């Protein structure tokens, strides 16, 4: 047992800065232990931002961002309140219920609205013509937790792990908190298990009510794979939970995270004209 624990003790019991004895980066790297450094990077997934990323002076960064806002501002004002601005509503506030649906592994390239000719997103394209379509939105990464991080916190991606998976990620200023201040209940609904990718700790730690596939009875699940229940079952769950709150007079902000559009792209038979487990196009069209 002691022999098995020795590698873990070596990795977790030693300060990763043990080799930082010099201002010469090359000397520090030569002094390092390759095996230890490999496992430390693998487990910690942390990076020295100042060392590996090109930066500009903080004051210059603050001025640059502040000047992107519509109202011109002097540098002294920027130093005191760099990002503060006042948005004046032209209409009375409407306390409507809000549902945010984030679709797994989906992008504009699948939509006819952006030039795709396969007709695999008819419902989404209908929304694009009948609602508001934003054409200058860009992904902050290729992992689901990057999207959740951006949608929830309105921040660019951080080096290493997403904030969703980092320690001490509770009590942050999230979109859920903004709604909560207006009397809403923030809810996170997920088709998989809540513990995946640290979602439960992150969302519950930031004031969300977390609801996952375990809220469904066995006979309410028509299909499931390793990632979660079929999206249709997730939406049935969402409708049930949200209807219940609406009937009780509870205002809600609900973030619904789908799972079906993910390898191996499996879903209930007979729903669309593309066979289950035949590829990404099928996953997109089913979702």
Write the CATH architecture name of the largest domain: 3-Layer(aba) Sandwich
Helix content: 25-40%
Count helical runs: 12
Question: What is the third-level CATH name, the topology of the largest domain?
Answer: Alkaline Phosphatase, subunit A
Largest sheet: 4 strands, parallel
Shape descriptor: globular
Tally the beta strands. 4
> CATH homologous superfamily of the largest domain, by name?
Alkaline Phosphatase, subunit A
**In the CATH hierarchy, what is the class of the largest domain?**
Alpha Beta
The rounded distance between the terminal residues' Cα atoms is: 48 Å
By secondary-structure content and strand pairing, the structural class works out as alpha/beta
Low-confidence stretches: none
Spatial strand order of the main sheet: 1-4-2-3
Q: How large, in whole angstroms, is the Cα Rg? A: 23 Å
Average pLDDT across residues?
Answer: 88
The total domain count is 3
Order of helices and strands: HHHHHHEHHHEHEHEH
Strand content: 5-15%
